[in-house]
Amino acid sequence: MMNDPDLLNAASALIARCKAKGEMIATAESCTGGLITGTLTGVDGSSSVVDCGFVTYSNEAKNSLIGVGNDLLAEHGAVSEQVARAMCEGALDRAPNATIAVSVTGIAGPGGGTDTKPVGLVHFGCAAKGRETITTHTVFPGDRHTVRKATVLKAFALIEEMLDRKD
């Protein structure tokens, strides 16, 4: 999937914008398992804007690597707005050079969904130095591949939105 032209074109455009604005990216990924960072680093010149990526698939990893509270995970579940916010803010805090961090946590499928958290539900967070954190969620239709691809593109769009908030 990291060779997908749609993803690589979007990554290339994002890298150019981040470079022009002097921004460095960190990621905190659950349902994409590193695909956001992998797609970004598939583009020449990505080292000038990609700081690091945290793949936090388990709740234990979310807690120990990026500081998502166990109480938050227990109360809201890993797939929630609150956890997406804590993930991006924790990644931004722990990344050595990042100025922007994006997070994704969701249910890519084909199993794991419930009535209140269906397959395709993904929560996003984007935090940046000196700017208010953005959170959103989407339920993407389709199979696991489609949900993960759509999640990467939405994460890129969220970073673009954050770039527009820079003075």
From TrEMBL:
Residue ranges constituting the CinA C-terminal domain according to the UniProt record: 11-163
SUPFAM superfamilies (alphabetical): CinA-like (SSF142433)
GO MF terms, alphabetically ordered: nicotinamide-nucleotide amidase activity
Hydrolase in keyword set: yes
InterPro entries: CinA-like_C (IPR036653), CinA_C (IPR008136)
The EC number(s) this enzyme carries: 3.5.1.42
Keyword field contains Hydrolase: yes
Keywords carried by this UniProt record: Hydrolase
Protein name in UniProt: Nicotinamide-nucleotide amidase
Phylogenetic lineage: Bacteria, Pseudomonadati, Pseudomonadota, Alphaproteobacteria, Rhodospirillales
